[in-house]
Design a protein that fits this description.
InterPro entries: Cystatin_dom, Cystatin_Fetuin_B, Cystatin_sf, Kininogen_Fetuin_HRG, Prot_inh_fetuin_CS. This is Fetuin B. Pfam families: Cystatin. One of its GO terms (biological process) is binding of sperm to zona pellucida. The chain is α+β, with helices and mostly antiparallel strands. It has two domains: about 230 residues, Nuclear Transport Factor 2, Chain: A (Roll); about 130 residues, Nuclear Transport Factor 2, Chain: A, CATH 3.10.450.10. The chain has four helices and eleven strands, in the order ααββββαβαββββββ. The strands form two sheets. Strands 5-6-7-8-9-10 form a six-stranded antiparallel beta sheet. The protein is flat, with a radius of gyration of 23 Å.
């Protein structure tokens, strides 16, 4: 009987987090735990997992360094963490749903780096870890840093250029010919492209593919004429390919490597991934991003609000302490999340619905404050960077000197 009452109370508490009106404001004193604290590292890991799971475009972000953290212990139990994380993108597309720790970092010359601000509530007693809001700003490494180290490295280019679309089509043709899939696939879009001079111009592409209605039992002269299957039925894949043109031998060398993701609902099965390596070989690799054996927390029913913006290539690095405006803006120029949910504030303190206070009932849920302007007061922050290459190291944001 006691167990039943406890379970009912836990369920009621979770539901009333979103439904109950504000009661009274909890203390606003923020702590500055160390950036190497175990609880802080866990908060950063969980926040980044949920950021990656929330996205449908781009590449999985990997943690480079905890730049700053402020902690707001809640009146009853649990804490809200206000994190600033230095991140880099990886070679894994977000549709793979892989853990960021299991993804390969990009080579130094191809790195896209930046910072994420995130607000996450963690309550171990009630098995809750909920990412409330996040904002990420990224940019490619400025070319001048690359040229000093690797003047012959491939140069990133616009993926919508016709030559890269053609390279993707050629790589896909090789995949369609050699794979054991039952239907042909078509190019959905090119997500990344670069060019390098080898024995001739070489084009490197990364692109998404989608299953079509055309069976491989039929001879198809033009794959582009095949209609894609509906989103409920079509498998989606991610490919890396290259087309090297040899002026010496007057030949083309085409390579392709694709992963096909199983049919799944990303909103409910973000932690699972089934990939088929090509050509001709398949392997299953099931991973669970959230929760898992090493992460006992359960997904929270409230929606996460956030965005990731990638700036165009620039000759100079930006200051991530003064983040550029988001894709959506108020008339005063302050960023807001793309969709308002409940009374959750944006990171700059803007209220998202009818000027409701940035406050939740402290008895049933966390108090979410505007993101603090003051960085961590701990001398341990920023934390130590993880495996930073020589190009990226001088670009890491610096903590302002105390006056």
């Amino acid at each position: 009987m006691v167990l039943l009452v406890s379970m009912l109370f836990g369920i009621q508490a979770l539901c009333s987090w979103a439904a109950s009106p504000p009661a009274r404001e909890a203390p606003t004193a923020l702590l500055s735990p160390t950036c190497d604290d175990t609880a802080v590292k866990e908060a950063a890991d969980l926040a980044l997992r949920q950021i990656n799971a929330d996205r449908t475009e781009g590449y999985i972000l990997s943690l480079s360094r905890i730049f700053s953290v402020r902690e707001h212990p809640q009146e009853i139990t649990g804490s809200v963490f206000y994190l600033i994380l230095d991140v880099v993108d990886t070679e894994c597309h977000v549709l793979s749903k892989k853990l960021w720790k299991n993804c390969t970092a990009r080579p130094a010359h191809a790195t896209v780096y930046g910072q994420c601000k995130a607000i996450i509530y963690i309550n171990q007693a009630r098995n809750i870890a909920h990412l409330s809001t996040y904002e990420c700003i990224l940019q490619p490494v400025p070319p001048r840093y690359i040229w000093t180290v690797c003047p012959d490295c491939p140069v990133d280019d616009s993926p919508t250029e016709p030559r890269y679309l053609e390279a993707a089509a050629q790589s896909l043709a090789k995949f369609n010919e050699e794979s054991e899939q039952t239907h042909y696939f078509s190019v959905l879009n090119v997500t990344r492209a670069s060019m390098q001079w080898v024995v001739g111009p070489a084009y490197f592409v990364e692109f998404l593919i989608q299953e079509t209605s055309c069976s491989k039992n039929d001879t198809i002269a033009d794959i582009s004429q095949c209609k894609p299957l509906s989103s409920e039925l079509a498998q989606i894949g991610f490919c890396k390919g290259s087309v090297v043109n040899s002026h010496l031998e007057h030949e083309q060398f085409v390579t392709t490597s694709c992963e096909i993701y199983s049919l799944q609902d990303p909103a409910t099965e973000e932690g699972k991934q089934q990939a088929t390596q090509t050509p001709g070989k398949s392997s299953q690799n099931h991973q669970q991003a959230f929760p898992s054996e090493t992460n006992p927390f359960s997904p929270h029913p409230e929606k996460t609000v956030g965005w990731v913006k990638i700036l165009p290539p620039s000759t100079e690095e930006i200051s991530f302490q003064n983040l550029p405006q988001s894709p959506n803006e108020h008339k005063d120029g302050k960023p807001v999340p793309p969709e308002a949910v409940g009374s959750t504030p944006s990171l700059d303190g803007e209220k998202t619905q009818a000027d409701k206070p940035a406050l939740t009932n402290p008895v049933t849920g966390p108090v979410i404050l505007p993101f603090p302007e003051e960085l961590s007061l701990s001398d341990s922050c920023p934390g130590e960077a993880k495996e930073i290459n020589s190009i990226l190291r001088p670009l890491l944001p610096k903590k302002p000197t105390k006056v």
